[in-house]
Amino acid sequence: MSRIKSKILEYLKDKGIKESEFNKGSGVVRGVLKSSSGISEDNIARFIAYDLENNNGMRVSLDWLIRDEGPMYEPLDRHSVQDPREPYGKLQEEKLEKVLDHLGNITESFAKALQDSSEAIKGIKEDK
Question: How is the chain split into domains, by residue range?
Fold first, then answer.
């Protein structure tokens, strides 16, 4: 099971949310969190959007979720609070786009770090 799936399950347990309740509220298909494969960016985005809709002034920390650093929760950024005048569907779409952009940036940073590490290891091997 992927580390991020384990983190999501830990979050659900901490909040006392049943997996079926999460699936219904987030749009994540039943069984995704229990399967042995990884988790898609879309499902991670659905989890983050679900958390934003079901928070109590605190949101799940992306550093905790993605990097396994820091506490599980962080204060909700006042700029991410939903404006009640906006249509719900539009807000959900915008939130998912922002989350996917953020995940894309994290993915790019991770890929660059892996490439740098690979080049460093290659250089060490060539020096021997």
Answer: 3-127
